[in-house]
Amino acid sequence: IRNSRYLILKSIKIKLENSLTPEFKKILELTKSLTSKNNSKLYFVYLPEYSRYKIDYDNTNYNLIKNIVTELNIPFIDIHKEVFEKEQNPLKLFPFELFGHYNVEGYKKVTKIIYKATKN
């Protein structure tokens, strides 16, 4: 059953990726245009989810999103690389190492990276 569920979910994921990519890109293009018209700066902050560190994670969506953001010349603030990848145990940045939002320590580290990347 586990293998069947995995195959079904994987095929759904591939269909979603192929259909959502153009819409996602269009939304980012429109957002970039709006921020430019308003003399603002757009940053894309990638906040990794708990499952990325708990299970064998598939980087397909991460790579797809990062490529689109980079292609559009939008600064990509990669919290995975800047914070979580540097931790010996990235799960310690979640409350009791369980699923959910980041804990206080996690948010402090994220905040420092975003501040550093956006101060000009």
Layout of helices and strands:
Elements: H1 2-37, E1 44-46, H2 51-54, H3 60-71, E2 76-78, H4 79-82, H5 104-118
Parallel strand pairs: 1-2
Helix pairs in contact: 1-3
Summarize the structure.
The protein has 120 residues and is mainly alpha-helical. Helix content is 59%, strand content 5%.
What features would you highlight for this structure?
single chain; 120 residues; mainly alpha; two-stranded parallel sheet; 2 strands
Radius of gyration: 17 Å
Span between N and C termini?
53 Å
Sketch the major β-sheet: 2 strands, parallel
**Neighbour order of strands in the largest sheet:** 1-2
Helix-strand topology string: HEHHEHH
What structural class do helix, strand and pairing data support?
mainly alpha
Number of helices in the DSSP assignment: 5
Q: What is the 3D form?
A: globular
Task: Report the helical percentage.
Answer: 55-70%
Low-confidence regions:
none
- Overall average pLDDT: 84
Strand content: 5-15%
Let me know the number of strands.
2
